[in-house]
Amino acid sequence: MKEIEVVIDTEEIAEFFYNQLIQRGYVPEPEEMEELADIAFDYLVEKCMIDEIFEEEEE
Length: 59
Hints:
Number of helices: 3
Number of strands: 0
Helix content: 55-70%
Largest sheet: none
Radius of gyration: 14 Å
Shape: elongated
Strand content: under 5%
Number of domains: 1
């Protein structure tokens, strides 16, 4: 299987969730969006869909 590099930005996830929730009639708080983004990221890591790489590991 070929490995590809994917960059997941939790701020981008939070913005996406925020926009989707607004379209569905919800008005989330910014702190709630950060938590949802972190949960989504953790889910992807737990399901082995992505690996968390810290910036110092990249060097």
